[in-house]
């Protein structure tokens, strides 16, 4: 299976399962405004926001793949005493823009058991009604799993 259900990942963390690596792949600036779960082992962005380049089409800053992503994930595995074929679970905001692609990228680069948290941290948007556009369906936060508006500085990515 290429995805992981949020409550299942949290249950493994709560049970003290140390046989996998749980990685938040969001840019730390996004985490700062959206929230963080201290359940992750580490924050290693898959895409980094380039605040020097504006993307007119998206109406946002451009993003580029973290050139050190694979090496940083390999280092995080090593620090936990895990081999390259250990399970890696990635988490992004929605599961689609960075979660799933980061897991695929890891599989393509020698980490065969990389998966992503389906629906990500915030979940999907409501499509209709008064709350249309709000991310209130599924996802880590909407499953009632532990999270906070504050980041854990011990786990947050620092630019090199």
Structural commentary:
By secondary structure, the chain is α/β, with parallel strands linked by helices. It has one domain (3-142): 3-Layer(aba) Sandwich (Oxidized Rhodanese, domain 1). Helix content is 26%, strand content 24%. It contains 5 helices and 9 strands. It has helices at 6-14, 28-34, 69-79, 99-108, 139-142; strands spanning 3-4, 20-24, 42-43, 47-55, 60-65, 87-91, 114-117, 124-125, 135-137. The strands form 3 sheets. A 5-stranded parallel β-sheet has the order 1-7-6-2-3. Strands 4-5 form a two-stranded antiparallel sheet. A two-stranded antiparallel ribbon has the order 8-9. Helix 4 (99-108) links the parallel strand 6 (87-91) and strand 7. The longest helix has 11 residues, at 69-79. The N and C termini lie far apart (34 Å).
List the helices and strands and how they pair.
Elements: E1 3-4, H1 6-14, E2 20-24, H2 28-34, E3 42-43, E4 47-55, E5 60-65, H3 69-79, E6 87-91, H4 99-108, E7 114-117, E8 124-125, E9 135-137, H5 139-142
Parallel strand pairs: 1-7, 2-3, 2-6, 6-7
Antiparallel strand pairs: 4-5, 8-9
CATH topology: Oxidized Rhodanese, domain 1
**Contiguous runs where pLDDT drops below 50 for at least 5 residues:** none
User: Helix-strand pattern, N to C?
Assistant: EHEHEEEHEHEEEH
Span from first to last CA?
Answer: 34 Å
CATH class category: Alpha Beta
CATH homologous superfamily identity: Rhodanese-like domain
Strand element count: 9
Query: Can you give the mean pLDDT?
Result: 93
Tell me about the biggest sheet?
Answer: 5 strands, parallel
Please bin the fraction of helical residues. Answer: 25-40%
